[in-house]
Design a protein that fits this description.
This protein has helices at about 25-45, 55-70, 85-95, 110-120; strands at about 1-10, 50, 75-80, 100-105, 130-135, 150-155. With about 160 residues, the chain is of the alpha/beta class.
């Protein structure tokens, strides 16, 4: 069994004159990511592998999650292609992952919502900022996952917690 954690970045700040890629987390985002990390550690098994978009808001979401999970920041791999990745790119990244049981990806919409829907035949309109979707795959290797083969394991987002 493999579990994919799709974690959308927390709410970003528009207070700075920065490129989209460089926008940091906002006050609400910093608060939500701590709350969501604590909720995840209390309710789910900890991922073993962490891959983040290189965008500041996604990377800092990954850092804060790792703090809450007690995971060293050195375990986060940065993947440029996760920045605005579509469902097919997200599938390719997951399929090429190391042999772990639980993989956490940190990234963006609309790609994450589209990927969640494709993986588990869901009909989500939107994964909110700092939302976490867990999808189980009944496979031995990540290379064997496919669209339509996953099952929704959990879906958490800040306003629900």
């Amino acid at each position: 069994m493999k579990t994919l954690y799709l974690i959308r970045h927390a709410k970003s700040s528009w207070a700075f004159d920065l490129s989209d890629h460089d926008r940091p987390l906002g006050k609400r985002g910093r608060r939500d990511v701590i709350k969501m990390g604590q909720h995840l550690v209390s309710n789910q098994a900890k991922p073993e592998t962490y891959i983040s978009s290189t965008a500041s808001r996604a990377f800092y979401t990954a850092l804060h999650f790792c703090d809450q999970l007690g995971v060293d920041e050195g375990h986060i791999k940065l993947e440029k292609s996760l920045y605005h990745a579509g469902a097919n790119e997200i599938l390719a990244i997951a399929k090429s992952s190391l042999n772990c049981e639980r993989l956490a990806l940190f990234g963006h919409n609309p790609g994450f919502t589209n990927a969640a829907n494709a993986f588990a035949n869901l009909n989500f309109d939107n994964i909110p900022t700092c939302g976490v979707v867990g999808i189980n795959f009944d496979v031995k290797y990540w290379k064997d996952i496919a669209f339509g083969e996953g099952q929704l394991a959990f879906f958490y987002f800040p306003k629900e917690i």
